[in-house]
Amino acid sequence: MAPRFRRKVLSPLLLLLGSGLLVYVAIAYFSMYQEQRDLAEKWQLQSLEAAAAARPEGAAVVPTSQKLPAPASDALVRVVIPRINLDAIVVEGVTKEQLAKGPGHMTETAAPGQPGNAVITAHRDTFFRHIVELEKGDDILIRRQGQLYRFQVTGKKIVWPTEVSVIRPTPDARLTLITCYPTYYIGPAPKRLIVFSKLVDTRADVPGQPVTRGASQ
Fold it and tell me: What is the rounded distance in angstroms from the CA atom of residue 112 to the CA atom of residue 170?
């Protein structure tokens, strides 16, 4: 009776369960894609508005050496990492719902590009799948309301989730990326991968101008 039960009941049930999981994942990824598309449109609008405000009609482009004003606190952040072909809009907050939309900025940390330690986290099976491949000297670009902040990776570290020193404030502008580790672990990953970087350059983010010039390849 057992073999017959497995063939007639258990096997179809497992197939149904597997199909359901595939549909669930497909819906989740489609929803994430839609959210990112909508956020990218809002980010583009903010960037154009910031560029128009910073450069009156007929005026020259703001020199890179000129000190740029801090962007609005609600300005959307775009993170670009040439080494791993990542280009995503960052959301505010790191709840399960927020991380389903994109990388999340820990709201209690500094705004990316401003003095302090800005912390961005994302799932290891979506946006931050390949940050383990980053090496010292690689560029991480932050585009925020008409400004382009270029960070360079200074190192990586594997820690336990209880290691909170990695998110502590810093006197200078830093950017810390966090994801679960090991990257391809089955089930909840036990550790965290930390990528550290420091701000090395700030300039006006001119619409239409390449942002990856000088980035590590």
Answer: 12
Catalytic residue annotation: 123, 180
In this structure, the dihedral spanned by the alpha carbons of residues 164, 110, 107 and 79, taken in order and rounded to 10 degrees, is -100
Percent of the chain whose predicted confidence (pLDDT) is above 90 = 59
Say which residues have a Cβ less than 8 Å from residue 83's Cβ, sequence separation at least 6.
Answer: 133, 134, 135, 138, 139, 215, 216, 217
Amino acid letter at 1? M
The two counts, helices (H) then strands (E), for the chain are: 3, 8
Rounded Cα gap, residues 154 and 134, in angstroms: 10
Give the pLDDT score at 112: 95
Count of Cβ atoms closer than 10 Å to residue 198 Cβ: 14
Q: What is the pLDDT of residues 17-65, one digit of tens each?
A: 666 556 545 666 667 888 989 999 999 898 888 877 766 554 444 444 4
Q: Specify the pLDDT at position 60.
A: 47
- β-strands 191-204, 147-159 pairing: antiparallel
Please report, as a single letter, which amino acid is at residue 170. Answer: T
**CB 120, CB 104: distance < 8 Å:** yes
